[in-house]
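Title: Prediction job returns without error message
Component: structure pipeline
Severity: low
Priority: P3
Assignee: unassigned

Description:
Job completed but the reporter wants confirmation the result is attached to the right record. Sequence as submitted:
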Amino acid sequence: MKALRFHEAGRLADVLKLEDIPQPAPSPTQVLIEVKASPVNPSDIYFIQGAYRRKPVYPQTAGLEGSGIVVTCGENVISARPGDHVSFRLPGTWSQYCLAEDSSLIRITRDIPFSISSQIGLNPMTAFALLSETSLQKDDWLLLNTASSTVAGIILQMAVAKGINVIALIRDLVHVPALNALGARHVFLQEDPDLVRKIEEITAPKGIRAFFDAIGGKQLENMMPLMSQYATIVCYGNISNGEKAAISNVHLVYRNLTVKGFGIDRWLSLRSADQIGKIYADIAEDLYTKKIVLREIPSVRLEEFIPYWSHLGHPDKVIITIG
């Protein structure tokens, strides 16, 4: 079978190779899946660079998320059956076939395209989990930076459905129409020198009830005075690449703020399999009924991905289609 693999960490264009490798056989508790689609997320690039929390085992097949069709089941597999449409999060999805533990599968019972179901594992669950880390109520204000990202777009839709007011911060004004269409109350440039004043005028006297920060550094520092009493700041990214934020106890103490870090794998580890399965089923239903809409993403065949990526440099988002 064909797989996109790397034998050392580095830039995707430098280390990723299309290789022919043997098709794996499932253990008693595993299933063999014919992969149909796999998204390219920032985490995939970090994984190839060796900078992700999950480390490669060389030679490593790339890809951390996907969807496909169950081909063969191990003798002890109870839930899955050949022909099942499933999604999954695991290393090695940029290949024609992969193995997964039966217990880790996300079963898709609705007629959802593989290009959509391949994205269920990470971003929608992250959006749901982030919102669950707050006490946001109807008419509260939520602040999002890097709001043009996939996960932020899903957070925005989930929040708006609950009557929450969302302020979206972006790096490029080209994203304004799309975010307005999803229901953002206000959209601002992250680097606007007058940003604090503008947000303060909009949200006064209530203030921001929750801030989901994927940047850190100066951006986090600047937003602290905008928080309401008992507000929650959830840090889930590090786009500033380790830039430090000067957080004053004045804001923390006088506003009774909660600042917490968030990682989806740790969050999931604290939930039961039944809880996780229920959330994924609800997410799949929302995608099917269009309560959550994922933006259109270009697709490229597995065999064509490396030249495609190398030609474009670093495209915003792409789905690798297989089979």
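Comment from assignee: result matches the submitted record. The first helix runs from residue 12 to 15.
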